[in-house]
Give the backbone structure.
Amino acid sequence: MALTKIEMITKLCEEMKLDKKKATESVEKLIDIIKSGLASDGEVLISGFGKFSVNQKKARKGRNPATSDDLMLPARKVVVFKCSGKLRDSINGRKK
């Protein structure tokens, strides 16, 4: 089950004793910073967590599954995430 924005805000309220408005502003601002970093630099590195980066995908052949018609899918950019070694070890229950 995914951790939602509302759940993050609630956790901030509980763990940092922030009011809901401040917690909401903090989460929204963090997301805005990540978005603008990806849009301008193409990479956002958060030490101990991981790196978000923008990759360019080439145009490629595709098929409409409903009609079986061939079509060309346009080139596009996608956001990818690579977790840090610390996060990977934490997820796998290993201590460093």
Q: What stands out?
A: The chain has a mean pLDDT of 93. Strands lie at 43-46, 50-57, 60-63, 70-73, 76-83. Residues 1-40 form one domain.
